[in-house]
Amino acid sequence: MSDGRQDSTPGEPTRAETRLSNPIDIGPYHVLSIIGAGGMGRVFRARDSKLNRDVALKLISTEFANDSDRLARFAREAQVLASLNHPNIAAIYGLEESDGRQALVLELVEGPTLATRIADGRMPGAEALSIARQLADALHAAHSKGIIHRDLKPANIKVTDNGIVKVLDFGLAKTAAPDFEGVTIADSPTVVGATRVGAVLGTAPYMSPEQARGLPVDARTDIWAFGCVWFEMLAGCSCRRVSMDGETQAATRWEHRRSGPKSHDWIRRHNRPCRRTDACSRFSAVRARSMARHSCM
Q1: DSSP assignment, residue 267?
Q2: For residues 214 and 204, what is the distance between their CA atoms, to the nearest angstrom?
Q3: pLDDT of residue 165
């Protein structure tokens, strides 16, 4: 996604974007510039000719145009986003198809990614806490719908100029197994029945131990990533991998550099419970949300 401030007029690319030499049209959308790229394809800034507004178009790569698994994941992302309606989750406007290629029509979120902000150095406690609260709200909303993000990281989070957090990219999201025995999904671990043992998906520094091992995951894998992101905001540094003796390379645990924030006691009480290796002792989304809302630094 874009990693710079967005200060352009409507319909004009920003300095952080790459203008297309030959703009194209996809349905009513006039594609203007490339915002970013990922494993599934590229994201463009486009102009909606019907509603006169800028949108983000996530266009699947041509190499995956006939890949049934990738197409199914793309369609699932659209359905997941359509089921969510929350101010801290970037919205979806529709699903378009042109010349056999599919595109998600998404809310264009102006502003830098959180990764850019963290790269500038350690954040003040109050600013980090405000972002953490909004992230916790977004995760609670998704988990309440039985949706696990599985790729929460600073590069998939944007913060607008007025401080509003938007969670992006649900391309690796999974939906939960059906509710059972009268226990609501919001109050219980979100078990992913479709996760195949041994399949490792996600971004390594933010994977929970169980996700790194390719094991079935639940909502607590997002809580691990949430704790990592929150810690990085306070520490102003990234995490590193530490291999575990007797395990495969994928079976790793993740620690943060020792050059962390000075408020170690506060981190130990409020942030570390989100990053416990044992998922059973890790905070739930409900508790993490409550903790973020009532914490102060």
Answers
A1: I
A2: 12
A3: 96
Q: Where in the chain are the domains?
A: 18-106, 114-294
pLDDT of residue 249: 37
The fourth-level CATH superfamily of domain 114-294 is Transferase(Phosphotransferase) domain 1 (1.10.510.10)
Identify which of 257, 159, 164 has the alpha carbon closest to the alpha carbon of residue 205: 257
Average pLDDT along the chain, 297 residues, taken 10 residues at a time: 40 55 81 85 92 94 84 89 95 88 92 90 88 93 92 94 93 64 32 40 83 88 91 75 41 42 58 78 64 58
Given this model, what pLDDT does residue 242 score?
45
92's enclosing H/E stretch is strand 92-98
- Helices (H) and strands (E) counted in the chain, each on its own, are 7, 13
- d(CA 208, CA 212) in angstroms, rounded, equals 6
Closest Cα to residue 109, out of 81, 142, 83?
Answer: 81
**151 assigned to active site:** yes
- From the CB of residue 198, how many other CB atoms can be counted at a distance below 10 Å? 10
In CATH, 18-106 is 3.30.200.20:
yes
Name the residue among 213, 203, 227 with its Cα closest to residue 275.
227
H helix or E strand, kind and range, residue 289: helix 285-294
The catalytic residue among 48, 54, 151, 169 is 151
Using alpha carbons, select from 252, 229, 47 the residue that is nearest to residue 151.
229
